[in-house]
């Protein structure tokens, strides 16, 4: 049972990661660097509980702010540029952060524990071990999964409210055409930075939750694969509405785990599923049209048109 | 290199010697970086061809590098074929992967949003790399296998600077491939079609350019260059490993961006600069932080000069 609770917690963490991509995706900005904010959040959150004596919730919140600060650092100079420069800058920044995390060493020796394994805090390439907050405070995996999902639900409700507000329309306008958006008086750069920083905040929280679940993190966890997979959750689930990232992250975390008989091949399966979903549903699994159809079942059936231009 | 105490009898002289040896090491590192950077330039050319024509980041490009490296390893270490045959085998097996990328990830999705083929190439990358690692670990139990290097340990000495022969061969092959590419793009009808497509797909179609065919050829070319880069990377390192593809993706991507996305001179400048930056930062600062220093340099270049070092078009600011 504890295994499934771990999967549940991991799913929640991945949903948060997917939403952190989605926040700036709404304004048409594609980030392939969420691993950086995730990693910063993981290291900050773990340091706070292990070395600083913080409790879990405040550590997660502070980690969120650390992620937001890091994304502000990337976002302010690069989001003023049009096109793909932002995407590329996020990749570069994420690689730099990964290498820095890989070499970090601070902390203090451990007073108890086995010999030869006595360092609290990140220890260079060996990584950050003994993040034992859950164990020390008697939090079971089930309770932890519950904590993670409470945060997920809060974030989802936040997105639900934003999706129905003026802000979402402004972001979608920026996605559609930045020049038009500026012409009608929208401060484009400010909105893009704000959306990206919200994404950084969510990624930071998600990273801190991840660190406490795994109890061991190292720079090698935050490679470019993680960032691209976070983006893949959104594109596969569907980037047109807020339901896409939720479905994409849940499906692509749970599905490979449930297919136990072929568990040796689950990474291959993951790659294959990405290709198949892209081939047969290029708009992602949930498109805006589908959501409209389901939410207003009494509306007359519109003529089905084959979507050519996705997003 | 510590200065020889016998050569420098006084502290003052020792300082001069230190300066001399430091300058010598600096020159040596720069030259090695330039020579080695030519492999990065080859990887970046593969990226930049697809980016320039399609505005797609081909994340599966690393697969071609990895396949080229292993085809080269098999031909050089196991079959014992000479260098030039090995390069051709590496290029053609890379081109085969390019064909698959075109048929699976790009062609069925050509009308979709640009992100869709990019995510499909991500899936292709994960799938092929994992399958490959499974096959690899079935045969070998190490992270790396030796790659026979016919030029190992040979070098040309010019004064006190040593030029490694395998680096020189790498540079020569890269230069040959670049010249061939230039000839193709600026002197043939195929190149004309490519330049047309880079401007506008629809107009190309209207003018009777067989866009699909030209793009297939572009994928083959890009992947063949990736395969050649894989062979050269494996040969200069004397090793072939299944994770080399992922490293090459990152390096190639950064070379492309450093020089300017979508431009071939940009890819060359970016690759050479990356080679020099990497070796210099591990020589001057520290090996552990080498990649971080390089990435921060790239980040600064992106902010100060978003079109890249050799790019022409200014990015639009809003």
Describe the structure using short key phrases.
heterodimer; A: 311 residues; mainly alpha; 3-stranded antiparallel beta sheet; 13 helices; 3 strands; 67% helix; 3% strand; globular; B: 318 residues; two-stranded antiparallel sheet; two-stranded antiparallel ribbon; 11 helices; 4 strands; 72% helix; 4% strand; disordered C terminus
Please provide a written account of the structure.
The complex is a heterodimer of chains A (311) and B (318). With 311 residues, chain A is mainly alpha-helical. Chain A has one domain (2-223). Chain A contains 13 helices and 3 strands; from the N terminus they run H-H-H-H-E-E-E-H-H-H-H-H-H-H-H-H. In chain A, a hairpin with a 5-residue loop joins strand 2 and strand 3 (128-129). Chain A is globular, with a radius of gyration of 20 Å. The two termini of chain A are 39 Å apart. The mean pLDDT of chain A is 85. Chain B is mostly helical. Chain B is built from 11 helices and 4 strands; from the N terminus they run H-H-H-H-E-E-E-H-H-H-H-E-H-H-H. Chain B has helices at residues 11-54, 61-78, 83-106, 115-139, 165-187, 189-199, 201-206, 211-237, 244-259, 264-284, 290-304; strands at 145-146, 155-158, 161-164, 239-240. A two-stranded antiparallel ribbon of chain B has the order 1-4. In chain B, strands 2-3 form a two-stranded antiparallel sheet. Mean pLDDT of chain B is 84; it is low at 314-318. At the A-B interface, helix 4, helix 8, helix 10 and helix 12 of A face helix 4, helix 9 and helix 11 of B.
